[in-house]
Amino acid sequence: MKTIRQQLQIGLLWATLACVLGAGTMLYVSLLAETNELADLQLRQLAAALPNDVGSAAHHAGRHDPEEEFVLQAWSSDGALMHVAAAPALAPLPRYAVDGYTDVVLNGTEWRIFGHTEDGRYVQVGQPQDVRDGLALGMALRAGAPLLAIAVLFSALVLAVVGRALRPLDRLASAVVGQSPTALQPLDPDTMAPDLRPVVSALNGLMGKFEEALAAQRTFVADAAHELRSPLTALKLQLQLVERAESDTARAQALVKMHERLDRGSHLVQQLLSLARHESGLSRTQLRPVDLNALIASVVSDHSALADSRDIDLGMENSDAVVLQAEKEGLLVLLNNLVDNALRYTQRGGRVDLLAGVAEGKPFLRVRDNGPGVAPEHRSRLFDRFFRPDGNEVWGCGLGLSIVRNIADHHRAEIRLEEGEHGRGLSVTVLFP
What we know:
The protein has 433 residues and is α+β, with helices and mostly antiparallel strands. The protein folds into three domains: 4-160, no CATH class; 194-277, Helix Hairpins (Orthogonal Bundle); 284-431, Histidine kinase-like ATPase, C-terminal domain (Heat Shock Protein 90). 52% of the residues lie in helices and 18% in strands. The chain has nine helices and 13 strands. It has a six-stranded mixed sheet. A five-stranded mixed sheet has the order 8-10-11-13-12, covered by helices on one side. The chain has a two-stranded antiparallel sheet with strand order 7-9. Helix 1 (4-49) packs antiparallel against helix 2, helix 4 (197-244) packs antiparallel against helix 5 (248-277) and helix 7 packs antiparallel against helix 9 (400-410). It is rod-shaped. The two termini are 42 Å apart. Mean pLDDT is 78; it is low at 60-64.
């Protein structure tokens, strides 16, 4: 694929050549028409200038100029050839007996003939069309020489102007190449050509987003390393307790604690993987029609055993069918995390309800419980990674709601946190566009 510079240069040079050829062709056609008019007038003058008493001797006209390449003939009233005058390379012509001008082809050569009869004498003057064409071509070349010189000069100017005009692109490329992936610096639009400032602004925006993504990635890695260090340290300490256990009972208790630590570590790793997987955006090809009521029924079925083990009433409220264009796997992870959080923090004998519907013309998913709820001052930070309110005795890694927020953002959905029924618990509503 050719560069912009090459496309401009080649296109302008071809345009210049086409203009020069077009101008040359029009100049030649114009000069040929003028030459034919002048040559026709010359033929008429030659016929009129022939004396009445010219002899019958034939002679050749001298060839000093292309205009003199003609054949002049005269016949008497009885048809006898009286006079022949011709250029050295031209042979006499047959008598055509025309009155005025005509074009004839003789032996493959086109001739322009003028014939005139006066006082019984017929005078005929002929000239090859090639002579006229040559005269017109010569004049066109002489007149077009300056045009050709101008075309060459213009071509050189095109190359110089295009090269100079595209220098800002070279400077922009150099500025971008000089950037470091770990330390991106915004480009200064004022130092660029006005036409490139929108491009520079777009590049600065892209670099800003890239820097934010890198910062988020670094933060994620640091937070993950920090959060993984604690369960691994606890797991190592528990292993030491198993090794130092003096009785089977103590060893069994230590192993139970170790299993709990392993479960927490596995849960943390699973949540980290889920968060990393759902941090990337969605494409339109990933969106499919999703029945929210069927999705809720599936989640309720999956968590029913856990809810029963904690004596929690888990169910779904009846509503009309709601179908949404979304990524089904993402919505399933979102709903699983909301239900898991609700079951984890709701007291025994509590209640967790799931509902899908349409509010304000928008479809929504809602998970509501009657547990202890979340203080209003902590709600704004609930979606931060690894954040857990003070005094929370239920173990967790603080990533569930962060995953929910990422999935909601990718679906351009809004999350609303409100109090549950009768001012108790927490109600999380995901409102889709």
